Amino acid sequence: MSGDGVMKRMGMIFRAKANKALDRAEDPRETLDYSYQKQLELLQKVRRGVADVATSRKRLELQLNQLQGQSSKLEDQGRKALALGREDLAREALSRRAALQQQVTDLETQHQTLQGEEEKLTLAAQRLQAKVDAFRTKKETIKATYTAAQAQTRIAESFSGISEEMGDVGLAIQRAEDKTAQMQARAGAIDELMASGALDDPSGMAKDDIAAELDRLSGGSDVELELQRMKAELAGGPAAGQQAIESGQGGQAQPAPQQDQPRFDKQ
After folding, report:
1. C-alpha distances in angstroms, 207 versus 157, 210, 213?
2. Which phi and psi (to 5°) does residue 100 adopt?
3. pLDDT per position as a tens digit, 6-43
4. What is the DSSP string of 37-58?
5. For the segment 57-81, what is each residue's pLDDT rounded down to a tens digit?
6. Quick check: helix, strand or coil at residue 5?
7. CATH number of 3-178
8. What is the mean pLDDT of the chain?
9. Interatomic CA distance for residues 94 and 82, integer angstroms
10. What are the residue boundaries of the structural domains of the chain, listed by start?
11. In this structure, how many other beta carbons lie within 10 angstroms of the beta carbon of residue 163?
């Protein structure tokens, strides 16, 4: 890919990320409030324009009243001059009156123009006021709807998080139940082995009760035979001890007779 292509691609990625960041940062409620504020400012300018036109119209009306008053005064002066035989003064008064009348005509034309502009601006201000009022109502409705949707989204996200967490908890519970069942089964198996006696023999070979009893009796007989041999040796020497052991193996050993004084033979 050429260098220009890489730069274009990087620029596109940057604009896409910037646009995404702006979307996240933008709050429609703030945008609506800003637009409403701008409309109020525009409405205020229109009203100020209407007031300026009305002021200009009022000034023209005052000028017209003054000129009309002067024109009437000149007309009266011309009549008096004629009555006194001063036709020249009457002609001068009428000439001045004619000039004032032209100014009155011009002012009346301007007055009509300003009056028309004032009416247009007044109508425009009324229409703009209606639009601003309608926008304000719509703005508040949209803001309330957006706030409700935002709250619902947060609740849905919370439920989603709870659902995911409960899923993890469910898996943990399942693992705990499986482990508990495994331990219970193992404990049950150990109880069965202990009851059968398999765990008593390190070699793993279980002994029955008869073999255990025979081992106990055999161990006791060896002790008795050794005791008889020692007694016989004390009484009659080693030969007597051997004879006592042999006689004891053939039947049950009898206790040796008591001697008043033991005798020891030298070997």
Report:
1. 66, 8, 10
2. -65, -35
3. 666 666 665 666 556 555 666 888 888 999 999 999 99
4. HHHHHHHHHHHHHHHHHHHHHH
5. 999 999 999 988 988 988 898 889 8
6. helix
7. 1.10.287
8. 76
9. 11
10. 3-178, 210-250
11. 9
